[in-house]
Design a protein that fits this description.
The complex is a heterodimer. Chain A is of the alpha+beta class. Chain A contains 2 helices and 6 strands; from the N terminus they run αβαβββββ. Helices cover 35% and strands 21% of the residues of chain B. Classes of the chains: A alpha+beta, B alpha/beta. Chains A and B meet through helix 1 and strand 6 of A and strand 1, helix 6 and helix 7 of B.
């Protein structure tokens, strides 16, 4: 729901690194987004298309690497990926208590540039 | 064409400022609580009841809303220092907003700072403010399934408060089912059932907060 602010930050991070590398142009930005981070790809893309024009990142491709959530059930120890609209309940024992192993990631991994 | 590795957390700028806020709170010796809930759960009512229950301890308040000073005016009526943040559409408070707000508060003279986040069960979960404790307020009219629908926030809370229990005879809220969901998701969360309207259950909540205030900020910590 707050993709405008985070997309601004993604653009800033990409531009900082492009400037450090004295790049002429950013052609792609690789992102990793965990499924539990409540960030929606289409919404990031939408804001990026508005924010990037006039910067080194104009026309850059956003490449989204989604990471599924991984949970460990506190009751039975079963490790699973939540299914059906992110239902957190354990499919093995039906209990509702998890340790989150993966899914909250939200990083700019790399950028592709022309120098 | 060249690929440049970056590996930078998109939220790290917020988290760095949250850490600075936290250091300021610790130096001032004030315990900071981030109150999160959906609109209408009773955040401001709980703030008012808490101020009253903890007197003569000194409480300060930061009110976060998209617009208006309605909440800040209600709290100012209780005679405590209050700052209103208007996010202008933003769906959550973030660490830079809180940093700006606390410039206007006499932090060193406070025992407790209550930060009322924007009414929302999703976005506040992702933005650390520098708080010591995270509290989620649910209320009976919202239904007992909220932990199922917004698990992230409930899973990370230090305490869950269920407000409006005076309405229980009129509603189908299953308190046992709700408790099961919360403790399943988050066995370490303290759980309080209360009514800001009647005052029922408030003393347990106030006693829980007092424990952190007596201990000082050194031993308190919400660590992700």
């Amino acid at each position: 729901m707050h993709e405008l602010a985070v997309t601004q930050r993604i653009l800033e991070i990409a531009l900082e690194h492009a400037n450090l590398a004295a790049a002429r142009r950013i052609t792609a930005i690789h992102l990793t987004i965990g499924d539990l981070s409540s960030i929606v790809d289409d919404s990031v893309q939408f804001y990026f298309d508005h924010l990037a024009p006039g910067t080194l990142a104009e026309g850059a491709r956003l490449v989204f690497h989604r990471l599924p959530g991984r949970f460990r059930c506190r009751s039975c120890g079963h490790e699973y990926t939540p299914q059906h609209g992110l239902d957190w309940r354990c499919p093995a024992c039906g209990e509702y208590g998890v340790e989150i192993l993966q899914g909250r990631e939200f990083t700019v991994d790399s950028i592709e540039v022309e120098t | 064409m060249r690929q440049i590795p970056v590996i930078e957390n998109v939220l790290s700028a917020n988290d760095a400022i949250a850490l600075e806020n936290r250091e300021r709170f610790d130096r001032a010796g004030v315990v900071v609580v981030n109150l999160m809930a959906s609109p209408g759960a009773g955040k401001t009512s709980l703030v008012l009841r808490t101020i009253e229950a903890l007197r003569p301890l000194r409480v300060g308040v930061v009110e976060g809303d998209v617009a208006s000073r309605v909440d800040a005016d209600r709290v100012a009526g209780a005679g405590v220092p209050v700052v209103q943040i208007n996010t202008g559409g933003g769906c959550h408070l973030d660490a830079p907003m809180l940093r700006a707000a606390i410039q206007e508060l006499p932090l060193a003279q406070l025992d407790l700072l209550l930060v009322e986040n924007v009414g929302n069960l999703i976005c506040p979960a992702a933005f650390r403010l520098g708080e010591h404790l995270q509290v989620v307020i649910a209320s009976l009219p919202e239904g007992d399934d909220k932990p199922l629908k917004y698990p992230a926030l409930f899973a990370q809370a230090d305490a869950v408060v269920v407000n409006k229990i005076d309405l229980a005879p009129h509603l189908d809220f299953d308190r046992q089912a709700f408790r099961r969901l919360v403790t399943g998701l988050n066995p370490r969360a303290a759980l309080f059932e209360l009514s800001c309207r009647t005052g029922e259950g408030l003393s347990d909540w106030a006693a829980w907060l007092r424990r952190f205030l007596n201990r000082g900020t050194g031993g308190v910590g919400h660590v992700e």
